[in-house]
Write a structure and sequence with these properties.
Length: about 325
């Protein structure tokens, strides 16, 4: 026996139908559902039925008892049937599809999260009574004792385990980290390979800039700080003299003091013939002076940009 007509008949007889997670259907007591004797009633629109949206609605034990009595099933099985029916309804509603309740109408979920009801066509025939054989097999108080605990079947299902989301997030982060590590390893190998080529092309006669600790750089207008270490050379001043013919100044990066010293020392570990200069002890410039043919300057600049990880440009003055 279908469950939808049972729900409609329950509404016709009790004037109220509560569906878990959806809301309540109300029937106006003034509406006459039964046709007059000897007359054939045409299907009528259920205009006397109204709907109150309430996702917190719970089912009543009377509805379970009614379904059990009309279908000849035990209450536990009747509760399971109703639970499956409501799950199917929720699936339709969650994807924006209307769900039809035979003899009552249709409901659809709107954007606000509430439900909208459209009256349908009333059932013209009452459900027939169960045959005598089915009544005999109907559940009794004796065989209901072992199935009287049907609350778990109509209660909301437990939420999925809370550990699933953290584990999924961890797997995603681990996958991204592995991809980044792989990319870094490949790029580092490529950088080491190209560093050897660029270093061999560098001018070995160009002046080397001494690696100066950050604490030893003192502005020109300040008093030198006495230290126990041997005096070291400060970054060279800005060079304005023209470069020798055939040599070009490739600027690797312009950065603040901390970044410039870290990058300078890092490039020195790669055996780059890198130079550093500053005009105000605030902004530092890292560069290479390389002998290059005019036709090869663009190619050398682009190769240095790939290896350096930043865009390299040629300073013309």
């Amino acid at each position: 026996m279908k469950l939808a007509p049972l729900l409609a008949q329950y509404l016709y007889s009790t004037k109220k139908l509560d569906l878990r997670g959806i809301g309540s259907f109300l029937l106006d007591p003034a509406v006459n559902i039964d046709p007059e004797p000897g007359k054939q009633q045409k299907p009528a629109v259920a205009e006397g039925i109204t709907f109150e949206s309430n996702p917190a609605t719970k089912e009543s034990a009377e509805l379970i008892s009614y379904i059990s009595a009309q279908s000849g099933k035990m209450k536990a099985l009747a509760a399971a049937d109703l639970d499956s029916f409501l799950e199917l309804a929720q699936q339709f509603l969650n994807i924006g599809k209307p769900f039809m309740l035979e003899g009552i109408g249709s409901i659809v979920k709107i954007r606000s999260g509430q439900y909208e009801f459209t009256p349908g066509t009333l059932l013209t025939e009452k459900l027939k009574d169960l045959p005598a054989k089915e009544k005999t097999n109907a559940p009794t108080a004796a065989n209901e004792e072992s199935f009287n605990n049907y609350n778990p079947m109509i209660a909301p299902r437990p939420a999925p385990a809370k550990w699933r989301k953290p584990v999924l997030a961890f797997l995603i982060v681990a996958g991204v980290g592995l991809a980044v590590w792989g990319g870094y390893t490949i790029s580092k190998r490529f950088a080491d390979k190209n560093t050897t080529v660029v270093a061999s092309a560098a001018d070995t006669n160009s002046p080397q800039t001494v690696i100066v600790p950050e604490t030893t750089i003192v502005p020109a207008d300040s008093v030198p700080v006495q230290t126990t270490q041997a005096p070291v050379q400060a970054p060279p001043p800005v060079t304005t003299a023209a470069l020798p013919a055939g040599k070009y100044k490739y600027v690797l990066e312009t950065a603040n003091r901390k970044r410039a010293f870290e990058r300078y020392n890092k490039l020195k570990t790669y055996e780059w013939n890198v130079n550093m200069e500053t005009n105000d002890s605030v902004v530092f410039k890292l560069y290479l002076v390389l002998p290059t043919l005019v036709k090869d300057t663009a190619r050398v600049r682009d190769s240095l940009s790939v290896v350096n990880g930043r865009k390299v440009y040629i300073e013309t003055k």
